[in-house]
Design goal:
homodimer; 340 residues; alpha/beta; 434 Repressor (Amino-terminal Domain); Rossmann fold; six-stranded parallel β-sheet; five-stranded mixed β-sheet; 14 helices; 13 strands; 43% helix; elongated; DNA-binding
Chain lengths: 340, 340
DNA sequence: TTGTAAGCGTTATCAA
DNA sequence: TTGATAACGCTTACAA
């Protein structure tokens, strides 16, 4: 059932049907009502999106490209919250959301990239793919990733990390370990070497590391490379492995600086399993401010980033067609029981 | 940059370019290589999806329609897990995922429904919308929702609820309350009346209620209507309100049967706030088997449904073009600390 | 292996 | 308000 058939069936021209759906001002209200109703009855619910897109050059679809796999991203609380914010704004603007992953590199995926009117890219997207997406000339907003040529929304990772580490290293605590995110290019949990620490690697994890290290420096605390864990995937399983290693290390850390709440929450559980009291035996800090962080025992002291708001803002900038605007959102420390 | 321009630039015919992307066997491997490389250099990454879809009648896009808002669904652990499973299988099959919500009813949304090659519907979708989606003749698989005319994936909610209630009501415990999901058509947390209990209402919550009630009957336990809470939205906020009411009710419940893990986890927290020991003062059970349920204190005894697997299976059935196949997945009880 | 051309369902323009 | 028509970018049958 297509527009032409509907026009025939209703005894009006195709132009009138098209206008009924796209330009209400081009016909009388009654006629429009009648057309919409009768068309629906015939099983015609509006112009075919492919044809309409081809003709208009606009699909009302927004591509949301995630740096990780879709299924990982949907399981990660931070990515989920970002998507919630994005979804809210897109729905409000009558846009549809097409999920893409920068890990998929098939010709089908490349073809799909021609459909959206604009893109929202989340996380560390390979330069090559970013270039490809940008070259098609549609609006792009990137989140949690820096690029001078694009509108972007970021948080000040280094500052947030600095602030919380400074808070954690207050007093006389000195034995400190860091449970990091993906810090090097290796797919298993491990400790860093000094060479790893000195390496350049453009990820938010590096900014957080820099913040931690600066605070440690200022407090006169030394954190050796082998007290820093690389956690390639931010999930419970990896986090528990690293937390167990860190908390059984001798001398035992009095402070555990974690680069994500997921990691910190796992660390709290591991500490409990090991019979350690938090924060008396070991203080633990997180990063992100996910909802679960409020409800652990003890609740988590963390750096709150408003992920939902970040998603909303990014989507809004995309809707507005913001050009080359770089936004950096504030973070704030939320002090709870895991750190006195 | 389109296929024709690329053909001109490379000095070959449009058919050859098209074949290079779609039918590798129609030209020599070297020529194909050259074309793909040169085309990419020109900024052409493959056929325009709208045009390709229009011509082929296939978009490689699958529409995933959620009964709730996108942003709520992304925040709900069960829906998220389902989406993870779906995403995995779709990506494997080189399909793209377009998110839709049955709550959105604009002409844009209706238009968007013309794009996908098939639909996966999750949750209680209004009959009218289900009909509309089905009328366009594309494959449809529904999840957590029953309809004789469609392939569907469900779990046996009544049986799962029956089993866990039977377990919970073992021994001499009799004072019981139920924290339900959406049981009536009202948007605030409240208790039921007897009339509400007797009402017909096609939701999984009703099956779970039936299972609870049957087990209670068999145990000789009476659960009054005013010991059953209606929780219209499955989130922490609503759950806490209901849990607080239930746990401060006199006589105080010894058993709290919750229709979701999100609710049960909130109930555990509320119990702790009230100074009640779980399970000594009040035993609490959940439903779903979300990851967090393993890590609460105490960990939650619940009915495990494998939501990720459910999503995978549904997507597989959709990919296979299964016709009118009704699958009911097993649930299993996982006994942990919240119920002895 | 190549070139040609019809047609997918729409929108927009133009003249009536 | 209508009807006719070109164009959007592609795929594919067919002939070369």
């Amino acid at each position: 059932m297509n527009l032409k058939q509907v026009a025939n069936a209703l005894g009006v021209s195709t132009a009138t049907i098209s206008n009924a759906f796209n330009r209400p001002d081009q016909l009388s209200a009654k006629l429009r009502e009648r057309i919409l109703r009768d068309a629906a009855e015939l099983g015609y619910h509006g112009p075919n999106l492919a044809a309409r897109t081809l003709r208009r050059g606009e699909s009302d679809v927004i591509g949301v490209m995630l740096s990780d796999s879709l299924s990982y991203s949907l399981s990660d609380p931070v990515a989920s919250q970002l998507l919630q914010g994005v979804a809210d704004v897109l729905v409000e603007n009558n846009k549809h959301m097409l999920l893409l992953s920068s890990l998929v590199d098939t010709s089908e995926q490349l073809g799909a990239e021609s459909l959206p009117d604009g893109f929202l890219l989340y996380g560390t997207i390979p330069q090559k793919i970013l270039q490809r997406v940008m070259r098609n000339g549609k609006p792009v907003v990137i989140v949690d990733f820096e690029s001078a040529e694009t509108t972007s929304v970021n948080i000040d990772n280094e500052h947030g990390a600095y602030e919380i580490a400074k808070l954690a290293l207050k007093g006389d605590k000195t034995e400190t370990a860091i449970l990091g995110l993906k810090l090097i290019d290796f797919n298993r949990v491990c400790r860093l070497t000094q060479a790893d620490v000195d390496m350049e690697y453009q990820e938010i994890s590096r900014s957080r590391l820099a913040g931690f290290m600066q605070a440690a420096n200022e407090r006169g605390v030394n954190i050796a490379a082998d007290a820093i864990w690389h956690i390639p995937i931010n999930n419970r399983h990896n986090a528990e492995i690293a937390a167990r290693e860190a908390l059984t290390k001798m001398p035992r850390p009095e402070v555990l600086l974690c680069m994500s709440d997921v990691i910190a929450l796992s660390a709290i559980r591991v500490a409990r399993d090991l019979g350690l009291r938090v924060p008396e035996d070991v203080a633990i800090t997180g990063f992100d401010g996910i909802p679960e962080a409020e409800h652990s025992q003890p609740p988590l002291t963390t750096v709150c980033q408003q992920s939902i708001e970040k998603g909303k803002l990014a989507a809004q900038l995309l809707m507005e067609g913001a050009v080359n605007k770089q936004v950096v959102l504030e973070t704030r420390i939320v002090q709870r029981g895991s750190l006195r």
